[in-house]
UniProtKB/TrEMBL annotation:
[4Fe-4S] cluster 1 binds at residues 380, 383, 386, 429. The gene is rnfC. Residues 512-537, 553-569, 633-643 have a biased composition (Low complexity). Residues 370-400, 410-439 form the 4Fe-4S ferredoxin-type domain. Belongs to the 4Fe4S bacterial-type ferredoxin family. RnfC subfamily. It comes from Planctobacterium marinum. The keyword Disulfide bond does not apply. This is Ion-translocating oxidoreductase complex subunit C. The keyword Ribonucleoprotein does not apply. Gene3D superfamilies: 3.30.70.20, NADH-ubiquinone oxidoreductase 51kDa subunit. Part of a membrane-bound complex that couples electron transfer with translocation of ions across the membrane. It is found in: Cell inner membrane. The complex is composed of six subunits: RnfA, RnfB, RnfC, RnfD, RnfE and RnfG. One of its GO terms (molecular function) is metal ion binding. One of its GO terms (cellular component) is plasma membrane.
């Protein structure tokens, strides 16, 4: 099959596509002058999205200076193609700006103010591209921002990423639409660079045959390309018949190979890939010079332009600036009218500020007499001329009716999306019906409905997935609860079967252990207290009546000693309690000396007054009690003997000092001193005898 096709092509024999028309070419207006360069505009408006796919993210900031060729957007999406700075300058703003679409809607645009320096980024050419992996080359082409430049704007790297076997690589140089000559001049002047781009494509795709198609009304371009390809027999130049729209992708494939692309399918589905000659030139620029796609050749033509020509226009150049540089003749138009594209597939722009983009191949400015405004739309007369002219074999009349009545399902059944919007049907319509416009509107509405349906479908899927997830989580919780209940029941069953062997480490076991420890500690404290009480009772039982009397006498002596000391220190400060505490401790130490003597022993043979002796005894007891209290507060130490422990357990004696108004009689004192008080007084007296002897002289003087 492949060899038969090649043999037929070499004989100059081709297939035909249905329909088609032959409008006036008008190419001679602009194809006789070489491609020129025009002055830069004051501002360049660079749309973020200039291709079929998704827009990238802006990677520059306002007031940032950028260099020529610097990347302005980036994205990881495979259908995103970056845009680059066409010249060096400053980013003025990132704003919504009128686009180059038929509707003229606003799109996100980067506004660049040139500085006139044309300062490039560091370029990195890949002259030795054949040594690079296929994937690396495709990435370089994507990074250069190359999209199809024949009109559709499909990302070039997507076509090159196909893993299918390619029979034919077709290079489209037909340029069938009237007025447009940009590809014609590019092939005449840069045939060799186009050849270099094709070499790169062949290295990536490995096609079995390369076909370069040129319409037979471009003999100069055919001759230039023939010279460029003469050394490679695998490259076949094909001079196809001049007929509109022979340059359409599906129509050109049918003409060259006789194959038809399936409805809603792609050429790669039948082993064919097609690229425009402008795309090949851009690929060569990117690989061999390292330059991204920042400019393209645009045809400036029409009888309302004084100097029709082809020019290199930077991406983002306002169309108004371009036609002014080509000397716009305002007198030839009653109202300024600029068409982007040719007369068949182009559309009238809404503003002079619409920028040139990667898919812009022509700016047509016709005179009013050259291309009159379409007349009033008349009713369809069902002549069938539109069906005869349709190159896709559709029924334009029925499609128009269904589109007008919003019957989109029926329009889709009639293969509305196979329409290439070539305009042949509208060109031959005697009723001036804007058929292409109704098809474009219907396609746009169908795409919107499909997008909404897709979003609804995805939302439904997410909703159902969420419900399924919640149900699964609920089941998991219920299963976990069942497992926990079963485990608890199993533990309870084990406890019932082994009541005497509780599980170690449970909370109840810990509480029981704590209670046992508390009870043991309490019992130990009670035992110690009982032992101390028994020891004190033994000490008390060991004391004789004379010892008890000695304690009382010592207490009285100590009280009188304290009174004497207080009289001597009347001028001392009240804040010095250490003196009385020291005296009390000293009295206690003296009272514990092992040489007790009778405090009632008179000095130098003086007689003893019984009444005074009794008062002295009471005073000594009072002094002893107060001294004991001070001792406890000043020296809180543990008793060192059983006697000390017994003393600590004795209640404090509270007796009146002798000489006070409330001094008690012998009977009152004896009634108040209990048995334990007597024991304590006797112990104190025995320990304080020595101190009482030392103070006896002073006591005698006080009593006299």
């Amino acid at each position: 099959m492949l060899t038969d096709i090649i043999a037929k092509i070499k004989k100059g024999q081709f297939w035909q596509f249905p329909g088609g028309v032959n409008p006036p070419g008008k190419k001679s207006l602009s194809n006789e002058q070489e491609i020129e360069r025009l002055p830069l505009a004051d501002k360049l408006y660079i749309p973020v999205k200039q291709h079929v796919g998704v827009a990238g993210r802006v990677s520059v900031e306002i007031n940032q200076r950028v260099l020529k060729g610097q990347q302005l957007t980036h994205s990881m999406n495979p259908f995103a193609v970056p845009v680059h700075a066409p010249t060096s300058g400053t980013i003025v703003s990132v704003e919504d700006h009128v686009s180059n679409s038929p509707s003229g809607i606003e799109e996100k645009t980067i506004v660049l103010q040139p500085d006139g320096q044309e300062e490039w980024i560091d370029l990195k050419p890949l002259s030795d591209y054949q040594s690079l992996p296929r994937v690396s080359l495709v990435e370089e082409i994507c990074s250069a921002g190359i999209a199809g430049m024949g009109g559709a704007g499909f990302p070039a790297h997507i076509k090159l990423s196909s893993g299918k076997n390619i029979e034919f690589l077709i290079i489209n140089g037909v340029e069938c639409e009237p007025y447009i000559t940009s590809d014609d001049r590019l092939m005449r002047e840069h045939a060799w660079q186009i050849r270099q781009g094709i070499d790169v494509l062949c290295h990536i795709l490995k096609p079995q045959q390369v076909l370069i198609a040129i319409e037979d009304n471009k003999p100069e371009a055919f001759a230039a390309m023939e010279i460029a390809f003469q050394d490679n027999s695998n490259y076949l130049l094909c001079a196809v018949e001049t007929k509109y729209p022979a340059g359409g992708e599906k129509q050109l494939i049918q003409v060259l190979t006789g194959k038809e692309v399936p409805s809603r399918g792609l050429p790669v589905d039948i082993g064919i890939i097609m690229h425009n000659v402008g795309t090949c030139f851009a690929i060569a620029d990117a690989v061999f010079s390292g330059k991204p796609l920042i400019e393209r050749v645009v045809t400036l033509t029409g009888e309302a332009i004084e100097r029709p020509q082809n020019a290199w226009l930077p991406i983002g150049t306002p169309v108004g600036h371009a036609i002014e540089q080509a000397s716009y003749i305002s007198e030839k138009q009653a109202q300024r009218r600029i068409i982007m594209g040719g007369p068949m597939m182009g559309y009238t722009l809404h503003s002079d500020l619409v920028p040139v983009v990667k898919t812009t191949n022509c700016l047509l400015v016709p005179a009013d007499t050259e291309m009159p405004t379409p007349g009033e739309e008349l009713p369809c007369i069902r002549c069938g001329a539109c069906a005869d002219a349709c190159p896709a074999g559709l029924l334009p009349q029925q499609l128009h009716w269904h589109a007008q009545s919003k019957e989109f399902d029926k329009a889709k059944e009639l293969n509305l999306f196979d329409c290439i919007e070539c305009g042949a049907c509208a060109f031959v319509c005697p009723s001036n019906i804007p058929l292409v416009h109704s098809y474009r509107s219907a396609k746009a509405e169908i795409r919107i409905q499909e997008d909404e349906a897709l979003k609804a479908s995805k939302a439904k899927e997410r909703f159902e997935a969420r419900n399924a997830r919640l149900e699964k989580e609920k089941q998991e919780r219920e299963e976990k609860a069942r497992q926990s209940a079963a485990a608890r029941a199993e533990r309870q069953k084990k406890k019932e079967n082994q009541p005497d062997k509780p599980e170690a480490g449970t909370a109840n076991d810990r509480v029981a252990a704590a209670l046992a420890r508390a009870k043991a500690k309490k019992a130990q404290q009670q035992t110690e207290t009982a032992s101390q009480q028994n020891e004190a009772a033994d000490v008390q039982s060991s004391l004789t009546p004379s010892d008890q009397q000695d304690r009382v006498a010592a207490a009285i002596a100590r009280a009188k000693a304290k009174k004497a000391q207080q009289a001597q220190a009347t001028n001392a400060e009240d804040e010095q309690p250490s003196t009385s505490q020291t005296d009390a401790v000293k009295d206690t130490a003296d009272a514990r000396s092992p040489e007790p003597k009778d405090v009632t022993e008179p000095k130098d043979g003086a007689e003893v007054n019984p009444e005074e002796d009794k008062k002295a005894r009471v005073a000594a007891a009072i002094a002893r009690a107060k001294a004991k209290k001070l001792q406890n507060s000043a020296a809180s130490s543990t008793p060192s003997s059983a006697s000390d422990k017994a003393e600590e357990q004795q209640p404090e004696l509270v007796l009146e000092e002798p000489g006070s108004d409330n001094t008690a009689s012998d009977e009152t004192v004896k009634a108040e001193i209990s048995k334990q008080d007597k024991i304590a007084a006797a112990i104190a007296r025995a320990k304080a005898k020595k101190a009482a002897r030392a103070q006896s002289d002073n006591n005698t003087d006080d009593e006299n």
